[in-house]
Amino acid sequence: MIEIIPAIDLIDGKCVRLSQGDYGRKIVYNNDPLEVAKQFEDSGIRRLHLVDLDGAKAQHIVNHRTLERIAAHTRLIIDFGGGLKSEDDLRIAFDCGAKMVTGGSIAVKSPDVFASWLQKFGTERIILGADVKDEKIAVSGWLEDTGLGLMPFIEKNRRQGVTKVVCTDIGKDGMLQGPAIPLYRKILASYPDLYLIASGGVGSLQDIYALSEAGVPAVIIGKAIYEGKVSLADLSKL
Question: CA quadruple 27, 98, 103, 89: dihedral positive or negative?
Answer without folding.
Answer: positive
